[in-house]
Amino acid sequence: MSQSTLHITFLGTGTSTGVPMIACPCEVCASVNPKDKRLRTSILVQSETTTLVVDTTPDFRQQMLRISNKKLDAVLFTHPHKDHTAGLDDVRAYNFFSHRAMEVYANSLTEEALKREFAYVFSDKRYPGIPEINLNTIDENPFYIGDIKVVPVQVWHYKMPVYGFRFGNFTYITDANRIDETEKAKIRGSEILVLNALRREDHISHFTLQQAVDLVQELEVSTAYFTHISHQLGRHDDVNATLPKGIELAYDGLQLSI
Ligand SMILES: [Zn+2]
Ligand SMILES: [Zn+2]
Ligand SMILES: [Zn+2]
Predict the structure, then answer these.
(1) How many separate helices (H) and strands (E) can be counted in the chain?
(2) Mind giving me the DSSP string for 128-167?
(3) Which of 1, 16, 86, 104 has its CB 3.0 to 4.6 Å from that of 58, i.e. a possible disulfide?
(4) pLDDT more than 70, % of the chain
(5) How far is the CA of 177 from the centre of ligand 1 (A)?
(6) From the CA of 240, how far away is ligand 2's center (Å)?
(7) From CA 22, how far away is CA 157, in angstroms rounded?
(8) What is the pLDDT of residues 93-143, one digit of tens each?
(9) pLDDT band at residue 2, thresholds of 50, 70 and 90?
């Protein structure tokens, strides 16, 4: 199946607290630049026939409303952390209009967390109006959602396996601090790479800004965008000015076509 043009929308580019962070007086959280306002990390991927979202953040409802997204065919999960799953309940709005269950793709680790944290969704006694979800268990094997080919790339978030995803020549990786050589091979040849870059200081489970820059250069990808950004990284425009050619911070609302 040949891949049609994909349209990517960055729905959120902030770390787990979002930017601004509640009650924080720092200059980044106080910035009036819209690019310094980051909802939790997620993207929308659209082909001619298919629309999917990677992760349902605590801001999922707001993210769908602010781009007026009317159709959603599937949710693809990277990992079970709350900043990537908390918005799942709100897929029921799509259930109401599509009259079918939302297709959800996750590995078994994430599925277990979904069943625990959204137990009411998977209960035998179903309260009317709760989300309708059809779970599809994924592993490292590529699969299709509609006409979109999805290639999972397994990365490490300290000790937790997390899925990045390659769609055609676009690869999206969030919440990682280490990638095995075999998985790097799946990323090579991408035209656009998205990586998480939390801040400048070391972190136990996220790439720093420098580690992310080094990885883009090691993988020889010509265009890269960084996401999952902390207020500790600095203001968007200040940080962007320091980055090598071809590498930029992503921001909420950024759209790409590939
Ligand atoms: Zn996260
Ligand atoms: Zn702050
Ligand atoms: Zn995480």
Answers:
(1) 7, 14
(2) TTPPPEEEEE--SS-EEETTEEEEEEEEEETTEEEEEEEE
(3) 86
(4) 99
(5) 12
(6) 18
(7) 25
(8) 999 999 999 999 999 999 999 999 999 999 998 888 999 999 999 999 999
(9) low
Residues in the chain: 258
> Which phi and psi angles does 42 have, rounded to 5°?
-170, 155
Report the mean per-residue pLDDT for the chain: 97
For residue 164, what pLDDT is reported? 98
Q: What is the mean pLDDT of residues 160-180?
A: 98
CA 160 / ligand 2 centre spacing (Å): 27
Element (H, E) at 11: strand 7-12
Instruction: Give the distance (Å) from ligand 1 centre to CA of residue 81.
Output: 6
pLDDT-based confidence at 60, cuts 50/70/90? Answer: very high
* Cα–Cα distance, 169 to 31 (Å, whole number): 34
Question: Ligand 3 centroid vs 18 CA: distance in angstroms?
Answer: 13
- Strand pairing report for 51-54 and 223-227: unpaired
- Contact at 8 Å (CB) between 192 and 225? yes
pLDDT tens for 40-53 read 999 999 999 999 99
Provide the pLDDT confidence category of residue 258 given band limits of 50, 70 and 90.
Answer: very high
What ligand is nearest to the CA atom of residue 24? Answer: 2
Q: Is 1 exposed, middle or buried (0-12, 13-18, 19+ CB in 10 A)?
A: exposed
Compute, in angstroms, the gap from residue 163 CA to the centroid of ligand 3. Answer: 11
Whole-number Å distance, alpha carbon 186 to ligand 3 midpoint, is: 21
Ligand 2: distance of its center to the CA of 236 in Å? 13
